[in-house]
Write a structure and sequence with these properties.
The protein is an alpha+beta fold. Helix content is about 25%, strand content about 35%. Strands 12-13-15-18-16 form a five-stranded mixed β-barrel. It has a three-stranded antiparallel sheet with strand order 3-4-7, with no helix packed on it. The chain has a three-stranded mixed sheet with strand order 8-9-10.
């Protein structure tokens, strides 16, 4: 079970700071990597460097580019209180949010996150609403903190172990709530199976901002997917719209962010262009949109 946080820097045995970009360069030039230790005071857990790589998928999607990162070496553990101690941080967040209206405790000791509270709270809100009722405010802050921690972890395993998701009477798997960029198509399929908006959280990297007369749209780097059909390419794009241009533009290009709320399917568009090397062929691009219009600004948060 993978319960580790992805780190971006480490220290060597002599206290030298080693950042992921520097380690990637040493890897690319086939230099020997130093011993890498957790840089959190009092920890020093042994780390391993995972170089940037491509990860393929069975659905014929184009390989996903996974950035370089650091993680715990096999058998190593962060010390209690370490800033990278994911289980410890999760327990602290659950304890801080142990409110019957936010994170009730179940009979087996697990906590339950009721997505219906999120759904109803967001439907009562509006994009320009300034005041938030206390219960919704507590819920949004707790959920944002939990999702940032989930984004830093390598899988759903730790969260699935301690935190049950429920929407009304139905349990929801973490895989059906939290989507990384390589799973944007799965989020779209889930939305396509229903006629309503669904509470979901998506992780993304800001690619651009598009300003319109009445709103601004933040666009994330899309998922490109091969379809098995010659000369057809599918793109799954994520965008967030809001009337406050300054706020959305405060998330810079390249920032990794979590976006959560009531998502809907946007319009699917098709475009064609000549094949770059064969004038007899035409490339067809099909773009599938996932859209979020936040009711509250806490619904977008930077992962750092």
């Amino acid at each position: 079970m993978n319960r580790s946080i992805k780190l971006r820097r480490a220290v060597g045995t002599h206290g030298t700071v080693h950042r992921v970009a520097d380690l990637q360069q040493r890897h690319d030039t086939k230099q020997t990597l130093p011993t890498l230790l957790c840089d959190s005071p009092g920890c020093g857990a042994l780390l391993k460097f995972v170089a940037a790589h491509s990860r393929g998928h069975a659905d014929q999607a184009a390989p996903v580019q996974v950035p370089a990162y650091l993680t715990l070496s096999k058998g190593a553990e962060h010390q209690p209180g370490c800033r990278y101690d994911a289980p410890g941080h999760l327990q602290a967040l659950l304890a801080a949010g142990a409110d019957p209206d936010v994170l009730p405790v179940l009979a087996d000791g697990r906590h339950e996150l009721r997505l219906l509270v999120l759904q109803q709270g967001l439907k009562r809100g509006s994009a320009d609403r300034q005041a938030v009722d206390p219960a919704t405010d507590r819920y949004l802050h707790t959920l944002a903190d939990l999702l940032v921690l989930r984004a830093l972890c390598e899988s759903d395993a730790l969260f699935a172990e301690h935190l049950t998701l429920r929407l009304g009477k139905k349990k929801v798997d973490w895989a059906n709530f939290f989507y990384t960029p390589d799973r944007y198509d799965e989020a779209g399929e889930r939305l396509a199976a229903t006629s309503t908006e669904l509470p979901m959280a998506l992780l993304g990297t800001v690619r651009s901002h598009r300003v319109q007369p009445d709103a601004v749209y933040l666009n994330c780097a899309p998922k490109y997917q091969r379809t098995g059909i010659t000369d057809r390419r599918d793109f799954h794009e994520v965008s967030v719209g809001h009337g406050d241009a300054a706020w959305l533009q405060s998330f810079p290009v390249g920032a990794e962010i979590v976006m959560f709320g009531l998502w809907r399917q946007g319009r699917t568009t098709t475009s064609t262009r000549p094949h770059p090397t064969d004038p007899r062929r035409t490339i067809t691009n099909v773009t599938h949109k996932l859209a979020l219009w936040p009711s509250f600004k806490r619904q977008l948060v930077v992962v750092d």
